[in-house]
Specification:
Two copies of one chain form a homodimer. By secondary structure, chain A is an alpha/beta fold. Chain A folds into two domains: 125 residues, Nucleotidyltransferase, domain 5 (2-Layer Sandwich), CATH 3.30.420; 177 residues, 2-Layer Sandwich (Nucleotidyltransferase, domain 5). Chain A contains ten helices and 13 strands. Chain A has a five-stranded mixed sheet. Chain A has a five-stranded mixed sheet with strand order 11-10-9-12-13, sandwiched between helices. Chain A has a three-stranded antiparallel sheet with strand order 5-6-7. In chain A, a hairpin with a 4-residue loop joins β6 and β7. In chain A, α6 packs across α7. The longest helix of chain A has 25 residues. The first copy, chain A, starts with 8 loop residues before the first strand and ends in an 8-residue tail after the last helix. Chains A and B meet through β10 and α7 of A and β10 and α7 of B.
């Protein structure tokens, strides 16, 4: 087999609730082969195993290499995880319990596997290879179905005594406000996630508002895609504009408060909602954050959109595996 | 002159809005002489200079030493400060602008002076000598007229790119809630400080509530002392109980959110309000924080009352000066 890629190669996998992205990543952090599978979210462990292995094999095939060319595998997964054992403890979204990610991939590809939380690999990817390049103190915020965060200090992911540091979705921003998926009230995720926006769009429709989203949002738990939301927003639909503005403002308030507490060099705003809405959304978030951040009068904290898009998880997972098992993870600085 | 104290001695000063506390601190972090002056809050720079020097001289006299025995001076002050120049940039509470704290004390005592933010010296004192002894990742929260915080990570005060990190008083906890002194709405300080409690007690009185605090709180900006509040709380006065419980809950919600983000080893709750109300207040805060902190299901983050009381600022300031100028700041671990 001819090997088009030189140097050490790592397979990065981003295991999401709807899709699995896999990519073979070279030592310049370029994706030299990629593949995608739908996540079998309800079929149980055997189906999940097959989909993961299939995505990995397809990526290898596209890269034109065999598994013996891989130096390591890194995977980002929803949790809660046992990171050291490489096990998904339980995931209602994936319908598995004690699923051995590490064991499954080691067996299939014969190479060491690093497992980490999905938000954290995305944050680490952005930190080292995306909008956070060159910084040491970074907060990444990802807005999608929920809101996740990753905190990096002195160049390392902060895990905290809890192991779960970086969790920003359950900061209280509106005490006694809307009920959150976590059972509490007024969490950031309950007012600024796509789930929160969907619920409010549904409310507006029930009250008779006219919006092109009417065809998509038929209940408060309807699946509203970020692209559908951004389409309506861009077309000037008043319902979409109002709800996106409101969510961005809440996210900004929370991030402004965290600017006060942490004084990071940069806050990176990413995730599906951000990706779809782009610059105008980040501008709204930035303005609200700056207005709230009294401890940063000179505007020293940068607030920027994520740069890696859908690839942040895959690239971050590959990088974490490379740093652990290959040891040459220092990226090219631009 | 006989010298009762051995080893190197440092003068610590806590410059507050109502009083100046000064203490000569030995190398075992014991206060071997202390003095107190009222802060001339309206009289301007010359009166402030005299009061600071007088407090320092009195502390030396009580310790039975002359200024030549001092190795350094540390002072904690309200800000904003230019920490390096040792200057108070402006302080409405002290009615001074560009006041040279460092120059004033160096000239009067002929020894090097370290200047730091008042909340930060208190947090550092608690971290090294109080409730935070033995920990490396600490968040200190001080509740008084306002709400201040100090963040310590890997054993060092986090200042952030803004220089102001650790500011927790302006986290948003109730968006569009009560107006804050900073001009924003729903900040933690606007719902959980003594100022916020006072305003609500006044509201209750205006609505006809019967409370022993009626004699003290005659307007929404009345000066309610922490001791008066705690007296009413302990006597079971329903107004005091309701408002203290409410403030503690809001503080707990905010700290629970920060537990999620930071995962610190310990959160230290201090300040005048905490000091006066004691354990029951800290219990309320702890319960609310734990209920909010989804990222700490195993309750790994400790939440404890500060231990140094009024001396945290003085001892912390002395310690910062000792570490900078004497270099033997490592305290005795217990």
């Amino acid at each position: 087999m001819t090997t088009p890629a030189e140097g050490s190669l790592v397979l990065g996998i981003d295991l999401g609730g709807t899709k699995i992205l896999a990519g073979v990543v070279d030592d310049q952090h370029r994706i030299v082969g990629r593949a995608k599978e739908s996540t079998p979210a309800r079929e149980g462990p055997e189906a999940l195993r097959e989909a993961l292995v299939s995505a990995g094999r397809d990526a290898l095939q596209v890269a034109g290499i065999g598994p013996e060319r891989l130096s390591a595998i890194g995977i980002g997964s929803p949790g809660p995880l046992d990171v050291d054992a490489g096990v998904i403890r339980s995931s209602p979204n994936l319908n598995v319990t004690d699923f051995p990610l590490k064991g499954t991939l080691e067996e299939a590809f014969g190479t060491p596997v690093a497992v980490q939380n999905d938000v954290r690999v995305g944050g680490y990817g952005e930190f080292k290879l995306g909008a956070g390049r060159g910084y040491r103190d970074v907060l990444a915020a990802f807005v999608g179905t929920g809101i996740g965060g990753c905190l990096i200090r002195d160049g390392r992911i902060v895990t905290g005594v809890t192991g779960n540091a970086g969790e920003i979705g359950h900061l209280i921003v509106k005490a006694d406000g809307p009920k959150c998926g976590c059972g509490r009230k007024g969490c950031l995720e309950a007012v600024a996630s796509r789930t929160a926006i969907t619920r409010r769009v549904y409310k507006a429709i029930k009250k008779g508002a006219s919006t092109p989203l009417r065809d998509v949002v038929k209940s408060k738990t309807s699946r509203l895609k970020s692209k559908e939301l951004s389409g309506a927003y861009r077309s000037g639909d008043p319902v979409a504009v109002h709800e996106v503005d409101r969510a961005a403002r809440f996210l900004g308030l929370a991030l402004g408060g965290l600017m006060n507490v942490l004084g990071p060099e940069i806050i990176i705003v990413g995730g599906g909602v951000t990706e779809a809405l782009g610059g105008p959304f980040v501008d709204l978030v930035r303005n609200a954050a700056r207005a709230q951040a009294m401890a940063d009068p000179d505007r020293l904290v940068r607030i920027e959109q994520a740069e890696l898009g859908d690839d942040s998880g895959l690239l971050g997972a590959a990088l974490i595996a490379r740093e652990r098992f290959v040891g040459t993870g220092e990226p090219q600085r631009t």
